[in-house]
Amino acid sequence: MRLSPALRRTVTVWAVVTLALLYLPLALVVLNSFNASRTFGFPPTAFTLRWWQSALASSGAMAALGTSVVAGLCATAIALVLGTMAAFAVQRYRFFGRRSISFLLVLPITLPGIVTGIALSATFTSFLGPFGVTLGLATVIIGHATFCIVIVFNNVQARLRRLGGSFEEASADLGAGTWQTFRHVTFPLMRGAIVAGALLAFALSFDEIVVTAFTAGPGVQTLPIWIFGNLFRPNQAPVVNVVAAVLTVVAVVPVWLAQRFGGDAAGGRI
User: Fold this and answer.
1) How far apart are CA 227 and CA 243, in angstroms?
2) Residue 267 pLDDT more than 50?
3) Model pTM greater than 0.85?
4) In terms of residue numbers, what domain contains 253?
5) Cα(171)–Cα(227) distance, integer angstroms
6) What is the dihedral of CA 168, 174, 177, 183, to 10 degrees?
7) Mind listing the pLDDT tens digit for each residue in 255-265?
């Protein structure tokens, strides 16, 4: 479909305005991380690396970063196993309640984070508390895994739906067993979707703050929680700004990689 010149210009203007609204605030965060002023006046009167050095020397920020990485990796590992298995079960087999299970698996990502956080906190403290369960890093990982599973499930299920079952049927017709078919046929075809789901799940876990606030114990602090806790402290504001700038830049990496891996099959790169 060809657009008229007037409509093309209108679409271009709207695209530029939308991108500006999305990315100009992020660009200002990065710019302010080099601003010599503590008040972040604009335009900056001078630039400095002082705040970056302070951020690297901040033990609280570094400890919170390590906690976020551990929580993200563990939640992603759980999501990979459970999400992939669930996607194969729902997409490759027919059984009673299949649609209901698919709906229940996707539901956590649609619920407000505060609702999920309250529900998980009540479960851990009221229901499982008498059995010795306390809020800590393990409960944060479980909380993150509840919505990370959805990301992996959706990616794997979409790829399975697109591929169909003809390759696996051909492999079985040639005498290959179930494990041989999975190892030599199914997994190579699914690898891109699995990696993309893992990257997006890790990115989502790494940035999560609402569910983390309800499931983390007093001694557990992820990087988003650390940022929120120090955001309104005047002495920490420049360091917080640097950490936010780093997260802004780093967040691009998993999304870009997920897009590349997620398009493997479409581009013929298996």
Assistant:
1) 8
2) no
3) no
4) 58-267
5) 52
6) -50
7) 777 777 665 54
Take residue 267 and report the two structure tokens written for it: 């581009």
Is residue 40 domain-resident?
A: no
When divided into structural domains, the chain yields a total of 1
CATH of the domain at 142: 1.10.3720.10
Average pLDDT over residues 243-253: 80
Residue owning tokens 């500006």: 20
Percent of the chain at pLDDT > 70 equals 94
Q: What is the crossing angle of helices 98-110 and 137-163, to 10°?
A: 130
Within-domain flag for 198? yes
State the amino acid at position 211 in one-letter form.
Answer: V
Dump pLDDT digits (tens) for 77-99: 999 999 999 998 888 888 888 88
CA distances from 48 to 14, 30, 51, 57 (A): 35, 12, 7, 16
Q: Assess contact for 144 and 220: CB atoms under 8 A.
A: no
Q: How far apart are CA 116 and CA 108, in angstroms?
A: 7
Question: Considering the domain boundaries, does residue 9 fall inside one?
Answer: no
Name the nearest CA neighbour of 68 among 249, 252, 247: 247
> Would residue 31 count as lying in a domain?
no
31 by Cβ neighbours in 10 Å (0-12 / 13-18 / 19+) ranks as: middle
pLDDT of residue 266: 39
Q: Which helix (H) or strand (E) holds 140?
A: helix 137-163
**Residue of 209, 185, 207 lying closest to 270 (CA atoms):** 185
